[in-house]
Automatic annotation (TrEMBL):
It comes from Massilia terrae. Pfam families: LptC. Keywords: Cell inner membrane, Cell membrane, Membrane, Transmembrane, Transmembrane helix. It comes from the Bacteria. The lineage of its organism: Bacteria, Pseudomonadati, Pseudomonadota, Betaproteobacteria, Burkholderiales. This is LPS export ABC transporter periplasmic protein LptC. The chain crosses the membrane at residues 12-33.
Length: 200
């Protein structure tokens, strides 16, 4: 009787070991399949985010609601990536075309145009120039990175800036400038140098 019970127990242990082995094999196969699928999806995403068009020596004009040119973006090369809906620009130039305010021209080493947000990120040696007129002093501004909202005529950065307004020199860290309202706000560490009185 004891021998019969022992054989039955041993048979159950063998069956349990086989079932556990099968379970581990199935789990391992499922994990491997998931890993392969994830890697394949990643490769597919990378491939689908390859540029869908590249334009050399480009220029495009953004129109306002009245059909008048609002600003122009040009550059040496524009590369558009479809998944991000972002255009990467080499040597960008952004020029305001509005007649209501003095026109600004912005240069940089490169830029990202975020189409959904309607904004341009200028990166590297950002240089902004605005000529003066009878009511507005000439403006020159330099920084290393700037976010431009062309439709609102707003420029902003968190980095150090150097600005010349007429004969006045202003340095600071962090800036928001609104060309439509002619207002400039410096966040911190501001330094202002006024020209001699006879040159004002």
């Amino acid at each position: 009787m004891a021998t019969h019970v022992y054989k039955r127990t041993a048979h159950r242990w063998r069956l349990l070991a086989i079932m556990l082995g099968g379970l581990f094999a199935a789990s391992g196969s499922f994990w491997l399949l998931q890993l392969v699928n994830e890697q394949g999806l990643q490769v597919q995403l990378e491939r689908s985010n390859e540029p869908d068009y590249i334009v050399d020596n480009f220029s495009f004009v953004r129109m306002d609601k009245a059909g008048q040119p609002k600003y122009v973006v040009s550059g040496d090369r524009l590369t558009h990536r479809p998944i991000e809906d972002v255009s990467y620009v080499d040597k960008p130039v952004v020029q305001g075309m509005t007649t209501e305010h003095p026109r600004m021209t912005m240069h940089a080493d490169r830029a990202r145009i975020l189409h959904e947000q309607d904004q341009v990120e200028l990166i590297g040696n950002v240089d902004v120039e605005r000529p003066g007129n009878a009511t507005t002093k000439a403006l020159s501004l330099k920084t290393q990175r700037m976010t431009v909202l062309p439709d609102e005529e707003i420029m902003k950065t968190d980095l150090p800036v150097e600005m010349k307004l007429g004969g006045m020199l202003v340095r600071g860290t962090g800036m928001v400038a609104n060309n439509a309202t002619q207002q400039v706000h410096l966040s911190s560490q501001s330094y202002i140098e006024f020209p001699p009185r006879d040159k004002r």
